[in-house]
Amino acid sequence: MTDYSADTDESLALRSTTDHDAFGALVGRYEQKLYRYVRRITDASHEECEDILQEIFLKTYRYLHNFDDSLSFSSWIYRIAHNETISHFRKRSVRPQTIREEDGTLYLQNIEADMDIAAEIDTKALQQQIQKILDTLGPKYKDVLLLRYLEEKNYQEISDILKIPVKTVGTRINRAKKQLHQSITEQGLFITP
What is the pTM of this model? Predict the structure, then answer.
């Protein structure tokens, strides 16, 4: 088997149309990342996440010939993952509402650092309240926060994944953070000095 460790994702994607092992290398690089992403935006069981992941890789392979090399492969496959996950839940007529508890702490820590509120809050109690508040955010705000703070994507990558302008990404993140901050303040979750 060929060693693909030095290859970029984009070069592997181009080679994958004729080299099945190259596609296997891409699957190896993205399997755990995409599994975590699907788990973070859904309330799906392990088995259901595995099914969604399988569909993601099937669609990725099926549409490799359409890969737009002006995008990063990462943005392209996350776009497929996002669409496939949402499509799966539309079929069930349920919009995913939950961010997994094991991810909640990381999510909260990243938002706290960006909002500079870490020193002012009791993280454990806030985590439960934040989950309730996040569940009230609309999907367009929740999606950008998830991609920014859990998946650690930059604005351009989020733009590519959600197919919205970069400025819209920034606007949505700012509005979502303001909504979070306002809800947190209204619920008295800040500890005032």
Answer: 0.65
State the Cα–Cα distance between residues 41 and 94, nearest whole angstrom: 12
Question: Would 193 be classed as within a structural domain?
Answer: no
Q: From CA 79, how far away is CA 56, in angstroms rounded?
A: 10
> Distance between CA 160 and CA 50 in Å, rounded?
24
- Rg of the chain over Cα atoms, rounded to whole angstroms, equals 18
- Across the chain, which has 193 residues, the per-10-residue mean pLDDT values are 85 89 94 90 84 95 86 90 85 56 55 46 55 78 86 91 94 91 72 41
Domain boundary among 47, 63, 91: 91
Q: At what angle do helices 101-115 and 20-41 cross, to 10 degrees?
A: 80
Distance between CA 127 and CA 185 in Å, rounded? 14
- Which two three-digit tokens encode residue 106? 């990381």
